[in-house]
Design brief:
Elements (H helix, E strand, L loop, with lengths): L7 H14 L8 H9 L8 H6 L18 H20 L4
């Protein structure tokens, strides 16, 4: 995956664009799966914000936009996102 910069929000936009182009099929169910893994339950909060909450807990209160995440945690969030996407796509079929 090639991105124009190392921002978490850029990575999220790339993943969302990829899924939209393929009518969500590559990551269908990812939203609920991520929420279950991180929050322990379903949520209407977008998966990117749920992942970001692991490093920026206040993001779930709605006062921090995803493009204002502190730069020093964006690399960790990108790594976590890639790990979760890989785990999700390689999980056994239900």
């Amino acid at each position: 995956m090639y991105l124009m910069d190392d921002r978490f929000s850029t990575m999220v936009a790339f993943i969302e664009g990829f899924c939209t182009a393929l009518e969500d099929s590559p990551l269908r169910g990812f939203q609920d799966w991520v929420c279950g893994r991180i929050l322990g339950s379903r949520s209407s909060v977008h998966w990117a914000y749920v992942i970001a909450s692991t490093k920026v807990p206040d993001i779930l209160d709605g006062n921090t936009p995803i493009d204002l995440i502190p730069h020093e945690v964006e690399g960790d969030l990108a790594d976590l996102t890639l790990d979760l996407v890989e785990e999700f796509t390689n999980r056994p079929a239900a």
